[in-house]
Design brief:
Largest sheet of chain A: 2 strands, antiparallel
Number of strands of chain B: 0
Radius of gyration of chain A: 19 Å
Structural class of chain A: mainly alpha
Largest interface: A-B, 44 and 41 residues
Radius of gyration of chain B: 19 Å
Shape of chain A: globular
CATH architecture of chain B: Orthogonal Bundle
Helix content of chain B: over 70%
Order of helices and strands of chain B: HHHHHHHHHHH
Strand content of chain B: under 5%
Number of helices of chain A: 15
Distance between the termini of chain A: 15 Å
Helix content of chain A: over 70%
Oligomer: heterodimer
Number of domains of chain B: 1
Structural class of chain B: mainly alpha
Number of strands of chain A: 2
Shape of chain B: globular
Distance between the termini of chain B: 46 Å
Order of helices and strands of chain A: HHHHHEHHHHEHHHHHH
Largest sheet of chain B: none
Number of domains of chain A: 1
CATH topology of chain B: ABC transporter involved in vitamin B12 uptake, BtuC
Chain lengths: 321, 293
């Protein structure tokens, strides 16, 4: 069914371009740029499942990415598991944690939930900073031998890149599939009016807990891959609050609720950020610019770039979802 | 045993300042249904305001509370017209995001100016060392903690008086109760919301200034006090500023009880647990009315 959506093929083309360009001429610096763009798209797409689809703000989305990184790195280094297996297990473990957490905090509605997610982030960070097996506040390092099963460090980095691109494509496909499903309709109903949705037979608590858990899976896998690539992790990089916030900026910029909006916002914002961070005069002000951008979008264009496109070309809705 | 008691008393003193910070959050939340996510960054601005004023004037830091409060009021009015006025009454998502955007901008500018290194206000009042049992001169209560707690309680009482005994204060409460009805009675809601937001921000900067006389701080310290403010506000129940002071003292007491036993870095975990438990078990707050429906 999803195969009949034209947007499905657009996603595949985007992923193919991400693979093709760095591969042509073995361009490592382009690969490093694109992997950050891909991570931004993964985070923004999965955040969209909560904010755009369900109408619940998650300020602590980065917690999934960081925890995934910790579990993945722990399994790959201490237990010596294969990368793919440790990343998948990391995703499952984090999803399960999110489901348990979700059943508890999703009893809170609207703004209370948003506040609780800030608390989740700080609480998990406090926990990890005090957790002995994960090296407390100094974190963990990957031993160099862990790259051996993938055929050495050089090959391992390329393999990680392809895996991250695959996760990016899967994130977008997942968003598309949920958008076109009955489950997705239930989420939209919760977003529009939760009480009405409950009266109409949507089990809001279960739906919310499921989507919270689903939105945790791919970011956790991506976190495991990314921290494996970087070779180290500590609580301050794993749970960087700013990245969590920037995810929200990306989503609002591109257009919440639309699959392409999340991807577009993620990609554009990441490009903008790397430009700002490398520019000598603006590097200190990237947060100010991001904040200003968010404020402008919220006040003047709540639909983001995609909302603007939809208004300009209404038929674009059919193709670009 | 007397060590725990001393730690509890110190917790009470610090807790009064938490309460003052939470009063600002609670007032804004209660009056305009906006969860002010600039709260943490404004608290930090209060800290740095105190730091700069004290560095420039070098007079008694508690006299400097007045200018930080006035600056906070003005800042609040600016922020209200910049980011809040347009989203009052729209979905909660929008006000969360717009106040949040201001928060990012403040933190960004602050980091550019002051980096993230720690600062402190080098001012201290003589402490009190009780000679009688059970302390027998073994513990000294810092003068700054005592003065900050007294200042916090005085400001809280002044706010309570303002809300219940002045015309403007009554208008603020009326708007909090029912905005449309208040408008029908001839109250200009825009003016009232602006003033309420300004007062809320002024309370935050003042409490930040008080914190800066007690602990060292960085530009990123705000998030810690923001979490505490949320916990306190939830404990007290929305829109109950004086309840927030009491709840703040309770939170400080709790911190005082647990700090002798566990590492300080565990405290966010405990506070968050408390936050969720209270929200799930007492959605109206401990001092709130029980839901009638």
């Amino acid at each position: 069914m999803i195969l009949r959506r034209p947007f499905f093929y657009i996603i595949l083309i985007i992923a193919a371009l991400f693979v093709y360009f760095p591969l042509r001429g073995n361009n490592v610096s382009l690969r490093e740029d694109l992997i950050l763009v891909a991570i931004a798209i993964i985070l923004a797409s999965n955040l969209n499942l909560m904010i755009g689809y369900t109408g619940y703000v998650n300020f602590g989305h980065i917690v999934f990415y960081g925890l995934g990184g910790y579990v993945g790195l722990y399994l790959a280094t201490v237990r010596g598991w294969h990368l793919v297996l440790s990343a998948l297990v990391a995703g499952l473990v984090v999803s399960l944690c999110a489901l348990l957490f979700g059943l508890l905090i999703l009893r809170l509605r609207g703004a209370y939930f948003a506040l609780a997610t800030i608390g989740v982030l700080q609480a998990v960070q406090a926990f990890v900073s005090n957790f002995d097996p994960w090296g407390r506040s100094t974190g963990m390092y990957l031993s160099f031998e862990s790259y051996q099963p993938l055929g050495g460090a050089m090959r391992a980095l390329w393999i990680t890149y392809y895996l991250v691109i695959a996760v990016m494509a899967l994130s977008m496909i997942l968003s598309l599939a949920i958008k076109n499903s009955k489950f997705g309709l239930g989420l939209f109903a919760i977003r529009e009016d939760e009480d009405a949705a409950v009266v109409l037979g949507v089990n809001a608590t279960v739906y919310k807990a499921i989507i919270y858990s689903v939105s945790a899976f791919l970011p956790a896998v991506a976190g495991a891959l990314m921290f494996y690539k970087n070779g180290m992790i500590d609580p301050s990089i794993a749970f960087e609050f700013m990245l969590s916030l920037e995810g929200i900026v990306m989503l609002m910029l591109g257009g919440q609720g639309a699959v392409m909006g999340a991807a577009l916002g993620g990609g554009l914002y990441e490009k903008l950020r790397s430009y700002l961070l490398t520019s000598p005069t603006l590097s200190n002000f990237h947060l100010v610019i991001a904040g200003g951008l968010l404020l402008l979008v919220v006040l003047f264009a709540p639909g983001g770039l995609i909302g603007w496109l939809y208004r300009l070309v209404p038929r674009a809705r059919k193709v670009i979802e | 045993m007397s060590g725990i008691l001393a730690s509890m008393i110190d917790g009470l003193l610090v807790g009064a300042v938490y309460g003052l910070a939470a009063m600002g959050l609670s007032l804004i939340w209660g009056v305009m249904d906006v969860i002010n996510l600039t709260h943490g960054s404004v608290i930090v601005l209060g800290m740095f305001g105190m730091y700069l004023l004290f560095a420039a004037l070098a007079i008694n830091a508690y006299v400097l509370l007045l200018p930080t409060m006035v600056a906070g009021l003005l800042l609040g009015i600016v922020v209200y017209w910049m980011a809040v006025h347009w989203v009052v009454g729209r979905s909660i998502l929008m006000s969360l995001l717009s106040t949040f955007a201001v928060n990012m901008m403040v933190i960004g500018i602050g980091t550019a100016i002051w980096s993230t290194s720690p600062y402190n206000v080098n001012f201290s009042l003589p402490g009190i060392t009780p000679k009688m049992a059970p302390f027998r001169g073994a513990y000294t209560f810092t003068g700054n903690h005592i003065a900050a707690a007294i200042a916090a309680v005085v400001i809280a009482l002044a706010l309570q008086w303002f809300l219940y005994h002045t015309r403007t204060g009554k208008a603020i409460r009326a708007v909090a109760d029912n905005r449309e009805a208040a408008e029908l009675m001839g109250i200009s809601t825009t003016a009232v919301l602006t003033i309420a937001f300004g007062i809320g921000i002024a309370l935050a900067t003042t409490s930040g200034a008080l914190v800066s006389t007690m602990f060292p701080f960085t530009i990123l310290s705000g998030s810690v006090y923001q979490l505490k403010s949320f916990v306190v506000t939830i404990l007290a129940g929305l829109g109950k500023p004086f309840g927030a002071l009491v709840a703040g003292v309770l939170l400080g007491l709790l911190e005082g009880v647990v700090t002798p036993f566990i590492a300080v870095s565990w405290i966010p975990l405990i506070e968050f647990g408390l936050f969720v438990i209270v929200l799930v078990a007492f959605p109206q707050g401990i001092f709130g009315k029980r839901a009638t429906a």
